[in-house]
Design brief:
The complex is a heterotrimer of chains A (about 325), B (about 280) and C (about 350). Helices cover about 75% and strands about 0% of the residues of chain A. With about 325 residues, chain A is mainly α. In chain A, strands 1-2 form a two-stranded antiparallel sheet. Chain B folds into two domains: about 5-45; about 45-280, MetI-like (MetI-like fold). In chain B, helix 8 (about 175-205) packs antiparallel against helix 10. Chain B is globular and about 70 Å long. The chains are: A mainly alpha (about 325), B mainly alpha (about 280), C alpha/beta (about 350).
């Protein structure tokens, strides 16, 4: 049935082209889009330049053989022979120690903040963790050098040596500086990251899971153990890997307490070196292209490891927030 | 099935364990703050804030130039990093869906994984070598680059959070797209962006590694961006690893000053967040 | 917020252009070895010439060489003379010796005194002697109670002229060291902790019981750390001192470019581990104001500046060397023209 005449007339009026936008609006939009594009392009440019520069500068070393560089133990400026292994070792040992210590503490903290702690204390603890996150690395290093290291030297290391000294981990002179000091400082530094991400992960667990368990008569801990943790496990793993990634890149606190010695030792009491620390110490003074190239190579290694870890962590955390509901009982 | 009493006991034990973990986290924090305040406060004389460092072995002197230097470095970092970071975030929010946008987002991911020392090396190559000098500008650039990834990510999220209805209403009223983005959308997200910016600035103020070979250090007052400059963080580092007791004391005092600065910025960020939430959109 | 920051930046730029007219900043970087002395020199010189500021950063000799080669600083400082290879990259660079210093072996242990021979010293730093009461040490230190604790070696983690002098000496007296490690501003240390700068090594030794390290004499003295007595080439045990340091330079023929090694010097009272320290500058200065300032400062340093050396345990330049340096300074040019050496400066 055809529309009534008056509506048809209005329809004809509506069929006219829309009111013209004010002149200059198009150019405004175009400029705006161009400006935004510049910002986006700047990001591409910056990262591109950094990566390309690193690759270019490290070529003298990589050309000889990248795998040789990675597995070589010797760091010898006299003969221009450089191997990355002691630094990769030191970085991995200290970061692993950091996460081994920080993960249980962070999970405990996150549980305290989300489930187990008295509600009145939660904001206080949350605030304290925020303060921990804001403290600069060099101040941690200062505290580490003057408080943690002497304490390790006089109390902790002798104790560990007398009780667990049969393990190669706790042998050798107890000087305080070394892998243990660096690992513990890193643990404190990554606590805020790991605990806050764990907290977020716990929050994304559907409430129905926990409530279901509680409805069935579980204690608070049992509800967490049965319903929440299994669901959150990939996310907590992601938080741990994120913390690991953060620990890898820490420079100042580590170089102040690790002993700056490019050696591989089984003992946690031994002095070592890490990738960022050696770059910080030696970059300003490399004279040969090979030496500079070696440091650029170390920077690439560091960059590569943190990239892989950060991506992995992100995937794992997203798995929890977006993943399908899994059965409560495992 | 264990008895109820046992299960309740386990619950209590776990609660206590969680509490113990909290203590494990709090104790180092408490120790650090206590020491910074107790060892650092006695050194906070007026001359400490205004004097230049004294030569090796001579007592006295202060960190006046380091405080100024940190201020200048952070200022330069803001000039470069805030527009770049916020702009990139807005770009990703508004244009982030096409192939170019996806490439930028992927690159921004990579960007956030670059360690600070590597950024420092990049700034050395890009600014120090061509300029043939260490400079505050190089240091400011390095700090700016550190600010960009987190700022971009947060800005993108905040802009996406602005309700679509607001944007549509604005467009329906005939306001051009660019004015909508700038005046309406960004203004709405401004509170959150301010918070993110303050936090990024606080982080930049506490950085040391990238400054070691960009802004180097300077014994004197410096107002020029093209010359080396002192900074709180580098000064703390140099004092801490030295053998002189007097310098160790100064390191604690300088650390206290730095913590107060970073703390003030963080508090400002919280205040900004609260204000934006209170006066926010419905 | 942004407005405040922009205003601040604008003020900073404005202030900068105003200030630029007043003072001249000359930036240098390098050796930590002479830093206590240079620190005093630049402070004293600035008091005499308030419009001239010398900003010296002690980042190690390796850093000094690299940065002056890249011309990112106006002058460098190094106790390690540049190698031919390094000089090829920095064409036109010359060495200006300023003072002499002694590299001492300091330690953190209860003994008041410690006697070391080339064998025991290289043995410790090679990691072969690991305990203080090792028989080799006991033999040379009869009557001194050596504790039954581990020796912790401390060395430099950065490129160092002090390391160069120390390893140069060890390479001369220990064939095993020469073969296994060699000499240089940075070497592959068989054992030990790394400290940044002379400051860092001193800090390590001071805070670590059982530590031993090599530092410039001023650092040990200023921090009240003990210094070992070393057996020199003539077989005499010598304590590091001004006189012993000067003695080390006495018999050595100084080449025209001043690059020389005076370790393991002959002379009954010569201290075996000593060295000159140099300021590295380009013979032709490109910047007029800075060039003039630099040349005049160097002239002051080798004349009036020498009086500050002895109180800080650095030995002044021997007279024949000082005469040679004067000639070199007079041959320096600023933008191609001879430098104006004001007589009163």
């Amino acid at each position: 049935m055809p529309p009534p005449a008056d509506i048809a007339a209005n329809g004809a009026a509506l069929a006219e082209p829309p009111q013209r936008l004010p002149a200059g609006a198009h150019t405004g939009d175009r400029l705006w889009n161009a400006l935004l594009g510049v910002f986006g392009g700047a990001v591409l440019l910056v990262v591109g330049v950094i990566v390309l520069e690193l690759v270019k500068v490290s070529r003298p070393v990589m050309a000889v053989g990248a795998t040789r560089f990675l597995l070589e133990r010797d760091w010898n400026p006299v003969v221009d022979s450089f191997g990355a292994l002691p630094f990769i070792y030191g970085t991995l040992v200290t970061s692993t120690l950091a996460i081994v210590v920080a993960l249980p503490v962070s999970v405990g903290l996150a549980l305290f903040l989300s489930e187990m702690g008295p509600p009145r204390l939660r904001p206080v603890v949350s605030f304290a963790i925020e303060i921990l996150a804001a403290i600069p690395s060099v101040v941690y290093g200062l505290w580490g050098l003057f408080v943690l290291v002497p304490w390790l030297r006089s109390t902790v290391e002798p104790f560990l040596q007398s009780t667990l000294g049969f393990l190669p981990l706790f042998q050798g002179p107890t000087i305080g500086l070394g892998f243990l000091a660096a690992g513990l400082i890193l643990a404190v530094m990554i606590l805020p990251t790991v605990s806050s991400v764990t907290n977020e992960v716990l929050k994304t667990v559907p409430a129905s899971l926990r409530e279901g368990a509680l409805a069935l008569g579980a204690t608070r801990w049992e509800a967490i153990r049965i319903a929440v943790l299994p669901y959150a496990r990939p996310g907590i793993l992601g938080a741990a890997i994120l913390g690991l990634g953060r620990a890898l890149g820490e420079t100042m606190a580590v170089t102040m307490v690790i002993g700056n010695s490019p050696e591989i030792h089984a003992s946690l009491f031994a002095a070592g070196y890490s990738l960022p620390a050696v770059i910080a110490n030696e970059f300003a003074e490399t004279v040969t292209d090979v030496h500079t190239g070696a440091l650029a190579g170390l920077a690439l290694v560091l960059f590569g490891i943190s990239l892989v870890l950060n991506s992995l962590a992100r995937i794992l955390v997203q798995l929890v927030s977006r993943g399908p509901m899994r059965g409560a009982a495992q | 099935m264990k008895s109820l009493a046992v299960r309740r006991a386990v619950n209590v034990i776990v609660t206590i364990l969680c509490g113990a973990m909290v203590l494990v986290a709090i104790v180092p924090l408490g120790s650090l703050l206590w020491l910074v305040v107790s060892k650092g406060a006695p050194g906070l004389t007026p001359s400490f804030f205004t004097a230049l460092p004294a030569p090796v072995g001579e007592p006295g002197g202060g960190i006046g130039n380091a405080i100024l230097g940190t201020g200048m470095l952070v200022g330069l970092a803001c000039l470069i990093g805030l527009p770049l970071g916020i702009g990139a975030g807005v770009f990703l929010a508004e244009r982030g869906d096409g192939p170019f946008g996806r490439a930028v987002r992927f690159t921004a991911e990579i960007f956030s994984g670059i360690p600070s020392i590597v950024i420092g090396i990049a700034a050395y190559g890009v600014v120090v070598i061509p300029m043939r000098r260490f400079s505050a500008l190089a240091g400011g650039l390095a700090l700016a680059l550190l600010m960009v990834p987190s700022l971009a990510r947060t800005t993108e999220e905040l802009v996406r959070l602005v309700p679509g209805t607001l944007r549509e209403a604005s467009l329906a009223l005939g306001i051009p797209q660019w004015k909508t983005s700038l005046r309406i959308v960004l203004r709405t997200a401004a509170g959150g962006i301010l918070t993110a910016a303050l936090l990024a600035i606080a982080r930049a103020a506490g950085e040391t590694a990238p400054l070691l070979f960009t802004s180097l250090n300077n014994q004197y007052w410096n107002f020029r961006p093209d010359l080396p400059t002192a900074s709180l963080t580098v000064q703390i580092f140099n004092y801490a690893i030295s053998p002189y007791q007097d310098w160790h004391d100064k390191a604690w005092s300088a650390a206290l000053v730095l913590l107060l600065l970073v703390g003030a910025l963080n508090l400002a960020a919280r205040y900004a967040l609260r204000r934006s939430a209170a006066g926010g959109q419905t | 917020m942004k407005k405040i920051l922009i205003a601040f930046a604008a003020l900073a730029f404005a202030g900068a252009t105003a200030r630029a007219a007043d003072t001249l900043l000359v930036t240098g970087a390098g050796a930590t070895f002479p830093f206590p002395l240079y620190s005093k020199w630049f402070s004293d010189y600035n008091k005499k010439h308030p419009d001239l500021q010398f900003n010296y950063q002690s980042i190690g000799s390796g850093g000094g060489i690299k940065q002056i080669t890249g011309k990112t600083v106006d002058f460098g400082a190094s106790d390690a003379p540049m190698t031919d290879e390094q000089m090829a990259k920095a064409s036109g660079i010359i060495h200006i010796p300023t003072v002499l210093g002694a590299v001492v072996v300091t330690y953190n242990a209860p003994m008041q005194s410690l006697k070391l021979t080339p064998e025991t010293l290289s043995g410790i730093f090679l990691g072969k002697i690991t305990k203080w009461n090792d028989p080799a040490l006991a033999k040379d230190n009869a009557g001194v109670k050596l504790p039954d604790t581990a020796i912790t070696v401390a060395h430099r983690s950065d490129g160092s002229g002090t390391t160069n002098i120390f390893t140069d000496y060890l390479s001369k007296v220990s064939p095993e060291w020469k073969e296994k490690v060699g000499k240089g501003t940075a070497v592959k240390w068989p054992v030990g902790l790394g400290g940044k700068g002379n400051e860092g090594v001193t800090g390590l030794v001071k805070s670590t019981p059982g530590a031993i390290g090599y530092v410039e004499l001023a650092y040990a003295k200023q921090n009240k750390l003990p210094t070992s007595t070393l057996k020199n080439q003539e077989g005499v045990f010598v304590q590091p001192s001004l006189e012993a340091t000067s003695e080390a330079a006495a018999g050595v023929e100084m080449p025209a470019d001043f690059r020389v090694s005076i370790t393991n010097a002959s002379g009954k009272t010569a201290y075996p581990i000593a060295g000159f320290t140099y300021l590295l500058v380009y013979k032709d200065q490109g910047d007029k104001a800075k060039g003039e300032a630099l040349v005049n400062f160097l002239w002051w340093a080798i004349h009036e500046g020498q009086t500050s050396a002895a109180p800080l345990d650095y030995a002044p330049l021997p007279k024949p060397v000082a005469a040679m340096v004067e000639k070199t300074l007079q041959s320096m040019t600023v933008q191609g023209k001879p430098a104006q050496l004001a007589a009163t400066r």
